[in-house]
Amino acid sequence: MDFTGREDGVSDAQQALKHYVGVFDPKTGKLEVVEAKRMVVRGVVRAKQASEEAMTAPADYQSYYALKTDLGQTFGTRKAKKAIEAVTLNAIDPNKGQEDAPRKLNVADRATLEEIGGITATMATREQLQAAVDQAKPVPRANMEADAIQDVYDPDEIIGREVLAAVPVKDWTEPTKKGEDVQVFSRHVAERVKKTVDSGNLDKVRLLRYFYFLFLFHTMAQPGRQRGTKRVPPRDKLKERFAPAPQAVIEHIRRKFSDGGEIRKYHSDLLITHCLAIACIIDNFEVDTSRLREDLRLEQKEINSYFYEIGARIKPVSNSKEKAKGEKSRTHYVAKLALPLQFPKLRSVAPKRR
User: Fold this and answer.
1) Looking at the domain assignment, is residue 342 inside a domain?
2) Residue 200: inside a domain, yes or no?
3) Does the keyword Nucleus apply (predicted)?
4) 48, 173, 316, 340: which is deepest, by most CB within 10 A?
């Protein structure tokens, strides 16, 4: 904007009216009074002068052939596009050296390569991406430096020594030693209580009881408000079903496999993979998946994928007893943990073919 100012005329009625402006100086403490004349100020839009570049029409760098090629790439048939690509690939490069001499890079090429190098220098490698994916997976932490398979998933690490020590087993061991059956809701657990107690290995009995607590926590959960989530059962119901488990064990399971009373898919996957790792430890790292699949309410394909996530191998096995009777044998699947563990790899997506 351009502003113009002029002194305004004073009417006869305002001859005696004057305006003053006071200017106070804080340093000296003096006040200076100056007469202020009445002014009329008007603003005018300033004319903008365009630059020479803006007023100059852009040069037409595209030749007729370039325009034709562009149209062919956009609207041409597949055959036409292929022909254009062939011409482009076989074009003579003015920067190419004679015979087998290396191509000479111009300033623009070198600048482009430097820019690409600066960007790719900070990019994660495939190994770093794989490590980040493995770290974020809902699986028990495996000791990848272990030399023996029993050291890969250490119960003291994936569960906690204090928690395992607090798991009650007396109400299982005493009836079993008397020849009485222990009533449980899991077929997988029911088939292993006597065998595990008879082995005399109390650590495995505690592991089996902890597995049973996880199974109860998984099956007692009700559908949540949001799709794909479940609600943690009330504390009194958990205490009743987990009895005689101490409150420390119940709270440990609540905190580890839920968040704010809600079980999301991450927590559900984490619980299932813990169950499978514990089942492998109890069965000496080779376990039949049929009862596990039924107890955890999974399809065979689903439980196989969970076993793959903890590094196990799956192999089909036919039932020899049914075969001996002449019956049609059903295929059972056995999961085996052995070194080296085989984990699913990060898949790379192939670019779309044009």
Assistant:
1) no
2) yes
3) yes
4) 173
Q: Tell me the three-class secondary structure of the chain, residue by residue.
A: CEEEEEECCCCHHHCCCCEEEEEEECCCCEEEEEEECCEEEEEECCCCCCCHHHHCCCCCCCCHHHHHHHHHHHHCCHHHHHHHHHHHHCCCCCCCCCCCCCCCCCHHHHHHHHHHHHHHHCCCCHHHHHHHHHHHCCCCCCCCCCCCHHHCCCHHHHHHHHHHHHCCCHHHHHHHHCCCCCCCCCHHHHCCHHHHHHCCCHHHHHHHHHHHHHHHHHHHCEECCCCCCEECCCHHHHHHHHCCCCHHHHHHHHHHCCECCEECHHHHHHHHHHHHHHHHHHCCCEEECHHHHHHCCCCHHHHHHHHHHCCCEEEEEECHHHHHCCCCCCEEEEEECCCCCCCCCCCCCCCCCC
Rounded CA separation 293/99 (Å): 67
Alpha carbon distances (Å) from 328 to 266, 317, 319, 322, 331: 39, 13, 9, 7, 10
Q: Which residue has the higher pLDDT, 244 or 114?
A: 244
In a domain, 236, yes or no: yes
> Is 180 within 8 Å of 147 (Cβ atoms)?
no
Q: In the prediction, which pLDDT does 99 show?
A: 54
**Total number of domains in the chain:** 1
Range of the domain at 320: 140-336
Considering only residues 65 and 335, tell me which one the structure prediction assigns the higher pLDDT.
Answer: 335
The answer to the question of residue 85 being in a domain is: no
Amino acid code (one letter) for 113: L
pLDDT confidence of residue 35: 83
Question: What is the strand order of the sheet 230-231 is part of?
Answer: 222-223, 230-231, 262-263
With contact defined as beta carbons under 8 Å apart, do 234 and 305 qualify? no
Rounded to 5 degrees, what angle do the CA atoms 199, 204, 205 make? 80
For the stretch 303-349, pLDDT in tens is: 999 999 999 999 998 766 555 555 566 788 999 999 888 887 655 54
Q: Which residue(s) pair with 36 in the sheet?
A: 19
Q: Rounded to an integer, what distance in angstroms lies between the CA atom of residue 210 and that of residue 71?
A: 69
